[in-house]
Amino acid sequence: MRHRRLLLVLAGYFVASLVAPAWAQENKPDTDKDSPVFLRVQRNADGDAIALQTAIVRYVPADAKAEKVSVDLIGAVHVGDRGYYDELNKAFTEYDALLFELVAPEGTKIEKGKARERGFNPVSGLQRGMQSMLDLEFQLDQVDYTKDNFVHADMSPDEFAQSMKDKNESVLGMIFRMMGQGARLSANDKGRTNDVDMMRALFSGDSLLLKQVIASQFENLEGQMAAIEGKDGSTIITARNQKALEVLKRELKGGKKKVAIFYGAGHLSDMEARLLKDFGLKREQERWLTAWDMSQPGKSPKKAADKKAAEKKAIDKKPVEGKAAAPEVEQAAP
C-alpha cells in the first residue's frame, strides 16, 4: 500500500509541476521586473516553508492615450487550500471575461464538483492523488466554470495531439528532459531539497512536512520548464499560450474592458512577454494569494523529523542490557 502511495504522489507531483507551477522563488522584494515571478515560497526564521503563493498581475496599455482596458494574469496551482479557491472565486466575479485553461473541446464548461463525472483522466487522476496526500482541495471541485463570464481559452484534444505530432514531441520525451535537468540542478545545488528529504516526508504520514518539501521543489523548476520548452517552444506551454491569447484578442475586440487569464503559473512568464510585445501593455500592479498555508505556530515539521531521526539513531546505538557495547575500532589509513 505504501509503495502505491509513493508512486501516486511522486507521479502526481511531477504532473502537477509540469502543467502548472514554475518560475518560483523565495520571498524577496519584487524589484527585478525583468524576471517575472508568478509563484513564490515564503519561509520563516527557521527556514521552513510557511506559504506557497500565486500572483495576480495587472497589465494596462503602455500608451496613456490608448483605450482603457486591463488584462490580469492569474497564476494557478491545481491543488490548494479551500480558502485559496474561495478568494479566487470572489476575484473572478470582477471580470467581464475570465479566460481559463482546459484541454477539452471548444466551449467546454464544468459544473463545480462534477469533474469526476467526465470520466477518468490520467492527469487529473494523479493530481487527485496529490490532493489526498497533501490534505488539499482539487481545483475542478472548487471552481464553477459555468459562470457567464467564463470563457474556454485552450486547445481541444485534437489540436493538442496534432501540435505534438507536428513538433515531434512526446510526453515521455518531456519527462526524460525534466528528469535530466532535475538531476543537474540537484548535483549543482547542494542546498536543494533532495531525494532523502522527499522519501522521509512521504513515509512520515505528515501532510504538512510533505507540502513543505514539495513547495521547496517548486523553487527550482525554472530550468526544468526551460528543458520542456527548448529553443522552438512546446505544445504544453507555447502553443497553448498562443491559443489563449487568440481568445484574448477576440474578447478585447468584442468590447470587453476588464479581462483575466486564469492559467497554471508555469505559463505566465511567456504570456507576460507576449502581452508586453504584441498587445502594447505594461505591468501596473500585483497581489498575492496563499495557495498552501503551511504556517503552524510553534511547530516545525522538519525539526521534528530531524529530532525523531536523531532519537532513533541514538536508540540503535544503545547497547542491549547485559551486554557491553562493542568497542569502536579506528581504521588505519591505507
Describe the structure.
- This protein has 334 residues and is α/β, with parallel strands linked by helices.
- The protein has one domain.
- Helices cover 45% and strands 18% of the residues.
- The protein contains twelve helices and ten strands.
- Strands 1, 2, 3, 4, 6, 8, 9 and 10 form an eight-stranded mixed β-sheet that branches. A two-stranded antiparallel ribbon has the order 5-7.
- A hairpin with a 5-residue loop joins β2 (39-43) and β3 (49-61).
- α1 (2-19) packs across α3, α6 runs antiparallel to α9 (222-229) and α7 (195-204) packs antiparallel against α8.
- The chain is globular, with a radius of gyration of 23 Å.
- The chain starts with a helix and ends in a 17-residue tail after the last helix.
